[in-house]
């Protein structure tokens, strides 16, 4: 059933069934927000997530409350609004004892990545790595790869863990360790947006190691895949890396020129 139809049905729904309708509304808003976020339509995605606030009052469901905070934190993270992302992630962390194992792991992984973006001391870096390790333990012990079926679907497996750990290591300035993490995954293990993200993370690690030619070739490989999937988030990551390459002594090399042509003229 569509969002519009559910809202139309709600006033005439029997009181005994209203909880089920409100839950369905929350879940559909979250699904819509996820799709819009990947398409780069952040404002519309945020609108859907914010529409769940009043619904939560009716539900009093920690799982859905934490889920929305987690999704909204991810949206802010993609926009580069780290402070707002951390506000939501840290609020979600306060509910971890009352939520499913997949959501626990997901919140910890993305909180670690956000904290890594602003870490400026050894103590903060160590805390980030401990949070990653905690997420890894949950994934392995609780077998979260099975997924969460009853609420908006959420799957957190070891592949997701390795990707997020690599991204966090890059943010901490450890591209060599990120490369090692990514070698634990093969391209054949991944599909969809994960396969694109894997290529982009490899490119980011190469950039951090000043392996500029390899970085350019990897994002060139990722570009048509991201376009086919209409993944605006990954396209923006590719554009960001292209701009970073332009600020290096490698900027006049043909690999960078070719990448620019493919990005902006095809």
From TrEMBL:
This is MalT-like TPR region domain-containing protein.
């Amino acid at each position: 059933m569509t969002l519009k139809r559910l809202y139309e049905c709600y006033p005439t729904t029997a009181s005994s069934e209203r909880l089920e309708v409100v839950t369905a509304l929350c879940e559909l808003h979250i699904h819509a927000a996820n799709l819009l976020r990947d398409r780069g339509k952040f404002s519309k995605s945020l609108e859907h997530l914010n529409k769940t606030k009043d619904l939560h009052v009716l539900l009093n469901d920690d799982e859905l409350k934490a889920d929305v905070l987690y999704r909204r934190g991810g949206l802010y993270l993609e926009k580069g609004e780290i402070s707002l992302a951390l506000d939501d992630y840290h609020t979600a962390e306060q509910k971890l004892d009352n939520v499913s194992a997949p959501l626990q792991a997901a919140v910890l992984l993305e909180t670690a990545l956000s904290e890594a973006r602003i870490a400026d001391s050894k103590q903060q870096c160590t805390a980030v790595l401990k949070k990653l390790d905690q997420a890894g333990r949950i994934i392995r012990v609780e077998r979260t790869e099975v997924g969460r079926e009853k609420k908006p679907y959420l799957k957190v497996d070891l592949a997701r863990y390795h990707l997020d750990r690599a991204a966090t290591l890059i943010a901490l300035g450890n591209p060599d360790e990120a490369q090692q993490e990514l070698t634990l995954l093969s391209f054949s293990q991944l599909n969809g947006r994960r396969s694109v993200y894997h290529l982009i993370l490899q490119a980011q690690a190469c950039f951090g190691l000043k392996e500029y030619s390899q970085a350019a070739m990897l994002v060139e490989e990722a570009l048509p895949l991201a376009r086919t999937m209409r993944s605006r988030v990954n396209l923006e990551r590719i554009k960001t890396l292209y701009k970073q390459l332009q600020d290096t002594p490698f900027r006049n090399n043909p690999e960078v020129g070719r990448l620019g042509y493919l990005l902006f003229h095809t």
